[in-house]
Amino acid sequence: xxxxxxxxxxxxxxxxxxxxxxxxxxxxxxxxxxxxxxxxxxxxxxxxxxxxxxxxxxxxxxxxxxxxxxxxxxxxxxxxxxxxxxxxxxxxxxxxxxxxxxxxxxxxxxxxxxxxxxxxxxxxxxxxxxxxxxxxxxxxxxxxxxxxxxxxxxxxxxxxxxxxxxxxxxxxxxxxxxxxxxxxxxxxxxxxxxxxxxxxxxxxxxxxxxxxxxxxxxxxxxxxxxxxxxxxxxxxxxxxxxxxxxxxxxxxxxxxxxxxxxxxxxxxxxxxxxxxxxxxxxxxxxxxxxxxxxxxxxxxxxxxxxxxxxxxxxxxxxxxxxx
Length: 323
Hints:
CATH class: Alpha Beta
CATH superfamily: Aldolase class I
Shape: globular
Number of helices: 9
Structural class: alpha/beta
CATH topology: TIM Barrel
Distance between the termini: 55 Å
Strand content: 15-25%
Radius of gyration: 18 Å
Order of helices and strands: HHEHEHEHEHEEHEHEEEH
CATH architecture: Alpha-Beta Barrel
Largest sheet: 10 strands, mixed
Number of strands: 10
């Protein structure tokens, strides 16, 4: 029986549900993958985007999310000192100069706000005004969001995670309060379906696809959960690439009229022909690994991301001289 996605045309809801039915062959859903690809390329003017994330700290977190290596209760992460302001600003400048479209400052749940505001101001001065400066941090109220916007942030990444309140120490209400503050405070919202694992149902996936549309997120997509040994959900493993392609396409069909940045993570080149046009380069502290990386996570750097997008026929922002 098709899954109903309120707020989306019935035909699109049925097609999105068909994509997520593993009993349906790849051959049968191939036209839907092609359509999702065409839709995203049309919305974005054939543009590809690179999202770059800098993990500022690996402070053990007490929220106890079952997929996160930085949760204190799992003792899975080898903590390292927080990045210095100079290292953050220098890295951000190099990424912006190299052609990144987004520079994300990512923190653990309770990173000090005053430190984040100071870093935001310094990074904004370094990267200029043409690039999105994104905050990915803990729960925020409206006053905090306004302060972050004043410091130079233009966008926030915040979502209701799959099985929020079951696999996480948060509640859906907590996450939605922050999202409401983000939107009321004037920041754009990026909203991915995540952290996707093999156990999640089509209903769960499409609920979050629909939510991205209902919130008017400027970007959507899907993030597959990376199994980290020592965390409870590692036993489920990772979704196969073929299914990740289907979820990316379903995210587009469920949000046909916006969300021009459709991201997939970890970087999966084949999804760039199925509705995705945005990939992520990460470095430093990372909840998907057991330690911080001095360089790009898994060796996937900005040059590789740009080349991957171009190989898929997408255009990228020109690199420039370092600011």
